[in-house]
TrEMBL record:
Residues 43-293 form the THIF-type NAD/FAD binding fold domain. Residues 1-20 are annotated as: Disordered. This is Ubiquitin-like modifier-activating enzyme 5. Keywords: ATP-binding, Metal-binding, Nucleotide-binding, Ubl conjugation pathway, Zinc. One of its GO terms (cellular component) is cytosol. GO terms for molecular function: ATP binding; metal ion binding; UFM1 activating enzyme activity. GO terms for biological process: protein ufmylation. It holds the Pfam family ThiF. The keyword Hydrolase does not apply. E1-like enzyme which activates UFM1. InterPro entries: D-isomer_DH_CS1, ThiF/MoeB/HesA, ThiF_NAD_FAD-bd, Ubiquitin-activating_enz. Belongs to the ubiquitin-activating E1 family. UBA5 subfamily.
Length: 399
């Protein structure tokens, strides 16, 4: 019993206060991420992203706070991935309980049936990575009173006390909850991701919503939302939506991948990314906000965004005065770059950035690789001299 109490003391204060339960801890907490390549380092593979040139400073993820609303088929896997990636703080929102009917999905186990999803998830996640501060919020965010609690939680749920979360991830399965998240994020001017899986379980999507800059969930709402139809009246008794762990896992993967790109500043964050399992189709698009959106905070954010000065990166380049060649209708130019090709005898492998032609760019900076071995070659050695050397080697070996 004494050892159990000592384990509970190592749990972040936020997690223990939110749930009131003791969590089993799988390992000691780690104060600082290390890039040391040893079997006992849970962050060695993640920190390798720095050496590969993908991320400048991976440990910045410990300064990020993410709210996951809905801990179901997509949300539970999303929380699992973020925990394994070492996110600084994770806020879990849900009010359902774990059921045996959920076992076709990932993450939850049969022994957790009957437990609240947030409590069961927090227990598992703390066991996986005790370095992550986890708070649980077991209530329905769509009611009037609970919406204010949700609003206050994401407004003050950052790493630093009183600061907002860095990102909100919507993993809910109904439009009413999506609209509640949309309203809260528009009011607080918080970036968030909306995600969803179709009823037939063979398609899904994620949508990055930046208030005022991209379309919010209310700018082009589904027909059910636009017509104020009660979703509960659409459900038929004895009929449930299909669910595949594969589709849920793929959508969760797309969601977390873009979350990491946004938080750690690498790659391109997709405004909208879809998935159709029937033909493995991944459509991408950008959705512009609706100036006549019913959400007044969305319209206000649009006006604020339009009032901002244009970014330097968005300023179009000045057009050339004329074609490169009078007889070249398509502006094609041939450039000889043989002199710039690095030779095999150089000490370091060149990055190649200076050899990229205009209009192209590298996805990321390639790491500099030290040339640990050098082979001396002599181009001026005659064939007779080589034969004499070979004869000497053979003669010495026989002796």
């Amino acid at each position: 019993m004494e050892s159990l109490k000592q384990s509970a003391e190592r749990v972040p204060a936020e997690a223990s206060q939110a749930s009131g339960k003791e969590f089993k801890i799988g390992r000691e907490r780690i104060d600082k991420m290390s890039a040391e390549v040893v079997d006992s380092n849970p962050y060695s593979r993640l920190m390798a992203l720095q050496r590969m040139g993908i991320v400048k400073e991976y440990e910045q993820i410990r300064q990020k706070s993410v709210a996951v609303v809905g801990v179901g088929g997509v949300g539970s896997v999303t929380a699992d991935m973020l925990t394994r990636c070492g996110i600084g703080k994770l806020m879990l929102f849900d009010y359902d309980k774990v059921e045996l009917a959920n076992m076709n999905r990932l993450f939850f186990t049969p022994d957790q049936a009957g437990l609240s999803k947030v409590e069961a998830a927090a227990k598992t996640l703390n066991f996986i990575n005790p370095d992550v501060a986890i708070t649980t919020h077991n209530y329905n965010i769509t009611t009037v009173d609970n919406f204010d609690r949700f609003l206050d939680a994401i407004r003050t749920g950052g790493i630093e006390d009183g600061t907002p979360v860095d990102l909100v991830l919507s993993c809910v399965d109904n439009f009413e909850a999506r609209m509640a998240i949309n309203t809260a994020c528009n009011e607080l001017n918080l970036y968030w991701f909306e995600s969803g899986v179709s009823e037939n379980a063979v398609s899904g999507h994620i949508q990055f919503i930046k208030p005022g800059e991209t379309a919010c969930f209310g700018c082009a709402p589904p027909l059910v939302v636009a017509e104020n139809i009660d979703e509960k009246t659409l459900k038929r008794e004895g009929v449930c939506a299909a669910s595949l762990p594969t589709t849920m896992g793929i959508v969760a993967g797309m969601l977390v991948q873009n979350t990491l790109k946004y938080l750690l500043h690498f790659g391109i964050v997709s405004d909208y990314l879809g998935y159709n399992a029937m033909n493995d189709f991944f459509p991408r698009m950008s959705l512009k906000p609706n100036p006549t959106c019913d959400d007044r905070f969305c319209v206000q954010r649009q006006q604020e965004f339009m009032a901002k000065p244009p970014s330097v990166t968005n300023v179009p380049e000045a057009e050339s005065e004329g074609p490169l060649h009078e007889d070249n209708l398509y502006g094609i130019e041939l450039v000889v770059e043989d002199d710039d090709i690095p030779t095999g005898g150089s000490d370091k492998v060149a990055s190649g950035a200076s050899n990229i032609v205009e209009g192209l760019k590298l996805a990321y900076d390639a790491p500099v690789i030290e040339n640990t071995s050098q082979v001396a070659t002599q181009d001026d050695v005659s064939l007779e001299e080589l034969m004499a050397q070979m004869s000497g080697i053979c003669k010495s070996s026989k002796e």
